[in-house]
Amino acid sequence: MRKIYVLALVLLYAATMKAQVITSPDKNFTMKFSVNADGEPVYELSYKQKAIIKPSKLGIETKDVPSFLRGFTVTDTRQSTFDESWNPPMGEQKTIRNQYNELLVTLSQPAVDNRFIRIRFRIFNDGLGFRYEFPSQKNLNYFVIKEEHTEFALAGDHKTFWLPGDFDTQEYHTTTSKLSEVRGKMKNAITPNVSQKTFSPTGVQTPLMMKSSDGLYINIHEAALVDYSCMHLDLDDKNFVLKSFLTPDAVGDKGYMQAPTQSPWRTVIASDKAGDILTSKLVYNLNEPAKYKDLSWIKPVKYIGVWWEMITGKSTWAYTDTENIQLGVTDYSKLKPNGKHGATTAHVKEYIDFAAKHGFDAVLVEGWNVGWEDWFGKTKDYVFDFVTPYPDFDVKELQRYAASKNVKIIMHHETSGSVRNYERHLDTAYKFMVENGYNAVKSGYVGNIIPRGEHHYGQWLVNHYLYAVQKAADYKIMVNAHEAIRPTGLNRTYPNLMANESARGTEYESFGGNNPDHTTILPFTRQIGGPMDYTPGIFQTKISAYNPDNTSFVHTTLVKQLALYVTMYSPLQMAADLPETYNKHLDAFQFIKDVAVDWDDTWVIEAEPGDYITMARKAKGKNEWYVGAITDENPRVATITFNYLPKGKNFIATLYADGKDASYDKNPQSYAIRKIKVNSKTVLKQQLASSGGAAISIKEEVK
Amino acid sequence: MRKIYVLALVLLYAATMKAQVITSPDKNFTMKFSVNADGEPVYELSYKQKAIIKPSKLGIETKDVPSFLRGFTVTDTRQSTFDESWNPPMGEQKTIRNQYNELLVTLSQPAVDNRFIRIRFRIFNDGLGFRYEFPSQKNLNYFVIKEEHTEFALAGDHKTFWLPGDFDTQEYHTTTSKLSEVRGKMKNAITPNVSQKTFSPTGVQTPLMMKSSDGLYINIHEAALVDYSCMHLDLDDKNFVLKSFLTPDAVGDKGYMQAPTQSPWRTVIASDKAGDILTSKLVYNLNEPAKYKDLSWIKPVKYIGVWWEMITGKSTWAYTDTENIQLGVTDYSKLKPNGKHGATTAHVKEYIDFAAKHGFDAVLVEGWNVGWEDWFGKTKDYVFDFVTPYPDFDVKELQRYAASKNVKIIMHHETSGSVRNYERHLDTAYKFMVENGYNAVKSGYVGNIIPRGEHHYGQWLVNHYLYAVQKAADYKIMVNAHEAIRPTGLNRTYPNLMANESARGTEYESFGGNNPDHTTILPFTRQIGGPMDYTPGIFQTKISAYNPDNTSFVHTTLVKQLALYVTMYSPLQMAADLPETYNKHLDAFQFIKDVAVDWDDTWVIEAEPGDYITMARKAKGKNEWYVGAITDENPRVATITFNYLPKGKNFIATLYADGKDASYDKNPQSYAIRKIKVNSKTVLKQQLASSGGAAISIKEEVK
């Protein structure tokens, strides 16, 4: 008998040591999985023989049952391949290919009654996704996560584009530094926000974009974040190992789970070409197909809004200057209007007129409903009721007027972080929308979360945001959620989640400014998970023109604002500036009118995170192409190619260029517009100003 | 100028020192209010020249603005009187007199920009109520309460009937001890509960009942607890000073307030007659009149239920023995029934038949809906959906059947403490009730609260319970909430809040038993705030008769169970035992069938907390009287008078008495029934067994 035991041990040892290997369909990526001598799961990832992730441990630490950390043996492995193409209802390309090789490993813990979990790896031509799965079984039912211990051991001290890890905000400048410099730069990176909670001197957010010294571009994020807390990364800056750090709840726990269940996917996208990161659809491919049968009500939207005038301080969300409002008690008809309220019936009609005249689908109106006098920072529970307009906002008249002009009004639901209150009113609010002709809502989560102690990025809120989106679908309402969790490709599954903010948007140009390199980074970071409602289109770059007290200025040229409509993908695109300003620049405004918001295909012509991006896109179902080129504070010559145009044909391109003397800080409004002929062989050398850009619309030559 | 300042200071000093005095309409109570040298508000209360509350400080400590604790000067005082009578839609008496003298003191803090608060005192013939008021003013808007510092400085080391102070449960045995003994007895007093959180070795709950060595009965509680956290009392056991201790939220805060607002009323009821405590309506009088115009849909209910058989373990709430359920995922039709499910269509029909035969209004059915397999203790968020029946419970057929028998089914909503989930489903659940013929719901809050970190008795949940009651009113649904906050008279304002549990109910007779003195105390403690759904009527006192594994027994005689229908007031009264058992004792059951649940008037004949209670009540709108007499473990002779009967007339009384050899522990089911003639002069000496009782129904003699 002794011999048999020894043999069994040897076999077991062999089983635990034998690595499983899968490669991407194009063989560029190789992922190796094994279990080490302590029974810890370990994976590593390489790209063209270069290490992307060195051997890194996987595991979940639990609170109430034995942890899923060690003592594992591999009891089953299955490899499979998958290849399909799918068509998103809206997007950067008409068809997305979802092709991967899969390894599904079953890991048992003999010391825990043979309890088992699975880790599923999917390796694509653009990177790796993996997740933990907890199948239904006798010895596993409920468990509470104390921490997820997923490691990403990096191969070097990469250049990194990072935001401070925070449980409540992503509205930070991106800091660009080596990994070894994160700790030293953290203090400056943490700028004030009305709700924020950092957790570590080396904590950073995902999507995390990096570049190795040997020219590899690496992006780490997650996909399909559903009913789980958001993953941050804590950096071991001696060994360059990133470790998952989940957002805790009010009592410090990090996840409440019931088998069968699974974690979100952890994703590593990599390439030696920066542009490949921008066109990666890995995160979407790791999400489930659309849950709704009928998608006909979900449509791209180009919109303007009663919004920038409040952001700049020209007008106000609030109807009065009273600072103490109790909904249902305060009688607004007895309060003195402050004379600066933006969302008045007459003023909204002006926006509707402008939208109708220039072909916009919709007008966003913020500050239409009672409660804005003391809406955040008060830990106030019942802040808004989402259905009661201010006395000077006539819902029915505006419904009639907008419909007569074939323009939609976009509803605004600011929750002020008070999500119990929002959920209590959600059905009533959505019904009110349907009854009054609204089919899209911008929601907001400014301020600390109520229930108190919960965070914007914890499981509680992650659950809430999706609840609000799913319930909106019951009413055929499209959602654009601000200050919500950063996207993880869930708009594939729930396509009425049109866009999110979840980063420093254009509003910060009025709050001191965004860095000139900001929009050359966002497509590599924030937008890896989904569309951003960045709200470009600011032509009046000096905010003091609207509000003498506001010394902020937009940190781009006017033309760069145009280019953003191409480089910052969203099916929901705003022209954020005021009609009065657009009326002064109708020639430049023409580009915003023309540019598509939904695309057949997308090409990255040039890109370097933090420096520049030049992209071309073909309008969905039309023979129209749009090019956007942007640069950071450094002027540069963009080399714009046109090889994506059908060969052998000529096209008319309208070029919106920075003026020769343009620069974001001294002469941002200088621009020149000219028409040129282009074909697939054209190569255009185009000068971009400091934080400048170029925008091109291309149409077939009419003979 | 110097002189004037001195004069002003003297005047100020005089103002702060001059005590304000008010007395009760009958002059028995005197309350004195002053501000001490530190500017702290101080009150004291006496009854017939005996001190009830010695000088005690008042104040609120805040977190974010200067506290409301000291530096006060009295800037205004107003006295007024009030006297009205009102008729509750249901109750212990037809008409309630609300007569008090009021002192309203305005207190300013010169050092805090003359910020001011008010303290409103109302002094009744049965005691004192006072509250803090925070009027609307320029220098006061939002504030966060760190702690309320209301003191009740007692005049001695009183005998006290107390429960351990706890943020999550009141389901403790009452411990009877001197105040000085609380600390020593605390450890034994804290028995296990599925959700509990004690806070101090001398922390106790309200309503707190005490008796002084010179024979004063004193009760401390609160009234109109709305959007504020529940007050516990922490005892300084050297000085016998009780100090308010509010329930904290998940982050340790105790209240989020916005002016104008107010605290609940703090109440002190006192008398030299124990019975006066039982008949006090002070708590109700401090609540607002009914908020609903139409009360016609709110009616008393006598009911039976598919409940005790699950409590005893004879049958189960759950349909299967599977332990891992995911709503919307689990397919019950594929699971094996456990064969012990109580709420089957056929079985519920048997209950409906029994209810119809014996004149009950309704049948409570628990365990009808999916999810009971793993319903608590799992921190499970989505536990129940409140609308999906088990496969063996036919909602439509039971609606039809119950309606054909003129019996209502009472809905059951167990939330498992997951209040977000309940609120998300509330509208759907109430609509489902209306559509299926239900007009009353028993709700439950077993287990730890979700959102995690919140407590059953914090402001978050206090807000929720009332939200559920108010929303129920939109659907004309009556509510009986278990494990919710103990009542504070809110059923005056929201009369569809029919009853609460909020104490150790009859269910504990199956979980090891209640003390024989339990129901001689509850009317002095728990029921000061409102009706209790105690669910009496257990005839089969040996639980093993239903479940051989259950060794518990009911700690009363059968007759005491009858008497509880009189001594434990509720407009919602259950006959909790099984029809099969009642069928064996139809003679005794007759009392339950006869007894009223709504009353014209109530008389306490004899009472001593912890020892005995004898009460008589006149049925609402009928010439019928019911008497209940109970005793603790000590047999006694009750002296039952009948002077509340109309004079000069004879009546037939049916007396349900303990058998001569009866005792709760040895021979509980021994009883004797006889008819006697009584008139207003009759005095009946009636022997009560150990934890026994007597019940009498009195009707006019038919000639």
From TrEMBL, chains A, B:
<dbReference type="InterPro" id="IPR013785">
    <property type="entry name" value="Aldolase_TIM"/>
</dbReference>
<dbReference type="Pfam" id="PF14509">
    <property type="entry name" value="GH97_C"/>
</dbReference>
<keyword id="KW-0378">Hydrolase</keyword>
<dbReference type="InterPro" id="IPR014718">
    <property type="entry name" value="GH-type_carb-bd"/>
</dbReference>
<comment type="subunit">
    <text>Monomer.</text>
</comment>
<feature type="domain" description="Glycosyl-hydrolase 97 C-terminal oligomerisation">
    <location>
        <begin position="598"/>
        <end position="699"/>
    </location>
</feature>
<dbReference type="GO" id="GO:0016787">
    <property type="term" value="F:hydrolase activity"/>
</dbReference>
<dbReference type="InterPro" id="IPR017853">
    <property type="entry name" value="GH"/>
</dbReference>
<dbReference type="Pfam" id="PF10566">
    <property type="entry name" value="Glyco_hydro_97"/>
</dbReference>
<dbReference type="InterPro" id="IPR019563">
    <property type="entry name" value="GH97_catalytic"/>
</dbReference>
<keyword id="KW-0732">Signal</keyword>
<feature type="domain" description="Glycosyl-hydrolase 97 N-terminal">
    <location>
        <begin position="22"/>
        <end position="289"/>
    </location>
</feature>
<dbReference type="Pfam" id="PF14508">
    <property type="entry name" value="GH97_N"/>
</dbReference>
<dbReference type="GO" id="GO:0030246">
    <property type="term" value="F:carbohydrate binding"/>
</dbReference>
<dbReference type="InterPro" id="IPR052720">
    <property type="entry name" value="Glycosyl_hydrolase_97"/>
</dbReference>
<dbReference type="InterPro" id="IPR029483">
    <property type="entry name" value="GH97_C"/>
</dbReference>
<feature type="signal peptide">
    <location>
        <begin position="1"/>
        <end position="19"/>
    </location>
</feature>
<dbReference type="InterPro" id="IPR029486">
    <property type="entry name" value="GH97_N"/>
</dbReference>
<feature type="domain" description="Glycosyl-hydrolase 97 catalytic">
    <location>
        <begin position="307"/>
        <end position="503"/>
    </location>
</feature>
<protein>
    <submittedName>
        <fullName>Glycoside hydrolase family 97 protein</fullName>
    </submittedName>
</protein>
<keyword id="KW-0106">Calcium</keyword>
